[in-house]
Amino acid sequence: MAELDQSTAFPETPRDFGFYVDGQWRQAGDQQERLSPAHDRLVTRTARCSKQDLDDAVAAARRTFENGRWSRIPGAERAAVLLRTAQGLRERRDEIALWEVLENGKPISQAKGEIDHCIACFEVAAGAARLLRGDSFNNMGDSLFGMVLREPIGVVGLITPWNFPFLILCERVPFILASGCTLVVKPAEVTSATTLILADILEKAGLPAGAYNVVTGVGRVIGQALAEHPDVDMLSFTGSTAVGRTCVQASAASNLKKLGLELGGKNPIIVFADSNLDDAADGAAFGINFNTGQCCVSSSRLIVERSVAPEFERILAEKMARIRVGDPLDPRTQIGAVTTSAQNETILGYIEKGKQEGAKVVQGGGALDLGRGRFIQPTLFSGVTPSMAIARDEIFGPVLSSFHFDTTEEAIALANDTIYGLAASVWTSSLNKALTVTRRVRAGRFWVNTIMAGGPETPAGGFKQSGWGREAGIMGVEEYTQVKAVHVEIGARAHWIES
Ligand code: NAD
């Protein structure tokens, strides 16, 4: 492995975390340990919370919501706290990035870039807190005036995955807080550190106790209990479609809490022969390998026009072979470690299945032995047919399946041939083709001649089995509100009962 940059050297000792309820740090009897996926060394110990701990956290969030110290203060005051938090993130950027890398395995340069995005999320949400508004109806006649009030929905449960522990958290928390809601977060068991660090930053920024609570521990225990909790008004879940389905069942069986679901994807990248092939190949290489392919919006299905397919796959394979895979603490690294050993087995299993089902490995095709940790070669399969497992399933790794098409209709049909609808990308120099594909492919996020670009201004979310609802932007705040229709009588009442 490459030598480490001294500014991001490995910490001498593991870091111990409690959990955070009602503005207080607590310890749990039981703890879980996390080894760095790139170095196999112990990095953090976090609490394995009990259901009682969760009940305490929900009760604290409820008290703070009801006493109005957050939910009923002016939007401008909420905005001030969110802006101070953004500043806190700026000051602790290196620290947050380090713990994100140590638990997740992503490259340090990428982690720092993600924190910049998180800062922007807090700033955008601060603006939204001041601009959040309802509506009015001045067209109901002289005697009636109508208003639509937006109110925070209440106590929100937030369950997050391990692939972008801090980024996904920050694409939700500031928007939830901007709406006036309070929340209880349950991060993924293997990547809880940065969610806990945020508690400290929010507290120092002046967030009232009980508005942000964190319980850590086992998903099928604490996550499930949060989804089932009768005093939680809304659950925002980001993770697999399978667990998302159990959250729907838990909501239905408990209090019919509102659900926001951000789930899986099998996202197409469509490349036309008239595109700049070098740019498109760079986009395809980035789209599938960013975050070791453990990315819900990763472009895992390449749909390329047949006339240029061999040339395009050659350019792409050559680029993928040059991606720097290695120690995530090295600032030059582009792909780090696979986050969990279970995920590593899953990815390698799909690579083997692809070979057995007859797809051709054009690049990569297996694990990468760097002496410690778990790494996978950026892998490109050609000759993939729609029924193969690597064509249909979300692999969540750096494995790209290539399909070929002759007509625009065929490209659109291939792109839509999935249960998912999270994201898509199209590369062409034709405005007609770009807009036709953008309008016909069913996906919640779209990129034309680029990929995974954008900021917290625009909403994120999926079509089909990729989820319900939207996060970020104004819609991301509105998601955590409910509307109340108000009717005001003006002047004398026309009596129902005759006098
Ligand atoms: P996962 O579904 O296994 O776990 C996600 C979270 O749910 C974790 O915090 C986990 O502890 C918790 N959990 C586990 N069992 C639970 C249960 N029974 N009830 C409630 N919570 C439970 O997902 P993962 O492996 O952490 O993440 C990978 C998946 O997340 C992929 O499918 C990916 O596409 C998806 N994802 C989607 C988005 C998006 O925005 N659409 C973003 C990131 C990840």
From TrEMBL:
<feature type="active site">
    <location>
        <position position="262"/>
    </location>
</feature>
<dbReference type="InterPro" id="IPR016161">
    <property type="entry name" value="Ald_DH/histidinol_DH"/>
</dbReference>
<protein>
    <submittedName>
        <fullName>Aldehyde dehydrogenase family protein</fullName>
    </submittedName>
</protein>
<comment type="similarity">
    <text>Belongs to the aldehyde dehydrogenase family.</text>
</comment>
<feature type="domain" description="Aldehyde dehydrogenase">
    <location>
        <begin position="29"/>
        <end position="486"/>
    </location>
</feature>
<dbReference type="InterPro" id="IPR016162">
    <property type="entry name" value="Ald_DH_N"/>
</dbReference>
<dbReference type="InterPro" id="IPR029510">
    <property type="entry name" value="Ald_DH_CS_GLU"/>
</dbReference>
<dbReference type="InterPro" id="IPR016163">
    <property type="entry name" value="Ald_DH_C"/>
</dbReference>
<dbReference type="InterPro" id="IPR015590">
    <property type="entry name" value="Aldehyde_DH_dom"/>
</dbReference>
<dbReference type="GO" id="GO:0016620">
    <property type="term" value="F:oxidoreductase activity, acting on the aldehyde or oxo group of donors, NAD or NADP as acceptor"/>
</dbReference>
<keyword id="KW-0560">Oxidoreductase</keyword>
<dbReference type="Pfam" id="PF00171">
    <property type="entry name" value="Aldedh"/>
</dbReference>
